[in-house]
Amino acid sequence: MEAASQEVQLRHVEKDVLIPKMVREKARELCSDKVEDFTKCCQENGFFMVVKCRAENTALKECLTGHYRDSTLYEECKQEYLKEREEFRRTGIPSKKRQQKVPSSM
User: Fold this and answer.
1) Taking the complete model, does pTM exceed 0.70, yes or no?
2) What is the pLDDT of residue 5?
3) Which candidate, 18, 37, 5, places its Cα nearest to that of 82?
4) Could you identify which of 67, 71, 101, 102 might form a hypothetical disulfide with 27, taking C-beta atoms 3.0 to 4.6 angstroms apart as the criterion?
């Protein structure tokens, strides 16, 4: 059988930890405006942020939760993870180290 025709098997840690982590990171990027609003409110209000930043906190939670539950975003992150995993298995180099720039003046 070809590898492409086989069902992709994900380990528990991949399915329940690594891919959801990618989803959270992407959701934070997609909700960056609400994250900035909440952060600004918290910095301006200090200790009273608990009371004064409820609207910003609610908007941020709704935005993030909407993305967490988005099955298309999960599938997109899953495919991205599978590409990274395949590349790692092929090269043995983690994606973080592949993304680092090699100095050109050696």
Assistant:
1) yes
2) 37
3) 18
4) 67
